[in-house]
Amino acid sequence: MSGWRAATSWFPGHMAQASRDMSQRLAKVDLVLEVRDARAPFSSASSQLHRLLQARRAPRLLVLNKADLLGEAQRRAMRRRLEEEEPGVRLFFAAAAERRGVAPILAAAVEQVRRESPRLFGRRQGARGGPAGATASMFAQELMVQAAAEAMPQGAEALPLMMMVAGAPNTGKSTLINAMRQEGARDAPGVVRRMAPAKMGKLPGVTRQLSSFQVSWEPPVWMLDTPGVLPPNIDNGWEGAMRLGVLDMIRTDAEHREALCSYLLHHLATHHIEVLSRWPRAHRLALRSAQGVLMMDGELRDIEQQVRSRLLGLEPSEAEVKLQVAETIGVWLLESVAQDMQQFCLGVRNGAGVREKKLNLHSTAMLLLKMMREGRLGEVCLDDHPFLVPPISKEERIRRKLQKKVERRRKLGKHLLI
């Protein structure tokens, strides 16, 4: 099993191209809907997207999708924290797959554009505002408006509103667009049936290029669907990548599934221990861990000594020791759940006269991750507690990189002298 820090950032070629396309299109849209997963509203945020929005001064609404997988108390806590960390943000909770919370988002988006861009209402054509000399940009923008206007119902008086949906992969952006189209089509029955829906899928990265869909007819609103975008290096380090991997926002190799699951189980044992009650062995282990009983077993004490004695005898940080102990507990929890599942399956299968089949750690990890992603583990939020190891700041990463470079040059100088 690979360690927790083996999870790496996922930044395929189409994502890099999508980032460039998104930057260009932002100048031509009236509003951006940023979509995050409500179970990881901070880990699924993208500093890269925020920089693009700030550079273009694009108005934004924040949508936390899949909010039906959280409890009311968790939603209130997330709202308070987001309003503290991102003051002024307009926040909406939605369950796009169930078409819940979609109507207020569409209404708020239209109202915000109406308030900030009144030029879009009451006339069908005309030059749109922009800096002097932006001829090429205005021409491209006019082409978009013209394309949207051609699909408008006969007699419509308002210039089409152009909105963009953006966010991390697999947060439900395309699902939200389809739900908004269904909501907006109430005033235009039969129209949606003639239009292809936004492409959706269970894996991240289904949408690979920008495409547009009309989501409202009164007033006319068009939405640009964009591929999920993440920075080349996950903002919150390896632990942020783990949380994204648990929720299937980044594709992970098969060899990392057990590590992802052990991280999830450690999180559950630490913050949502009631979820483990369905697996007696794992639940007992989690209770002992919470009560500090494991530290008296001697085994974890040996792990601490091994961690402290490696790296050429250098003393590791307390964070490193804490991480190694947490990884070990996570592996033990995964083994305990696998044993509970194996015992249950063997009992049921033998009772039903079905051939015995053992569950290994990999299949157990796959099943648990599937249950988490589908919401079958209960109301679990991965961002409602701080990271095990605080992420390294950008300045600290630069300092460490320079320090390693100096160390390499020093060693090279010694080698040349010899």
TrEMBL record:
It comes from the Eukaryota. Residues 163-238 form the G domain. GO terms for molecular function: GTP binding; GTPase activity. It comes from Prymnesium parvum. GO terms for biological process: mitochondrial translation. The keyword Nucleotide-binding applies. This is G domain-containing protein. The lineage of its organism: Eukaryota, Haptista, Haptophyta, Prymnesiophyceae, Prymnesiales. The keyword GTP-binding applies. One of its GO terms (cellular component) is mitochondrion. Keywords: GTP-binding, Nucleotide-binding.
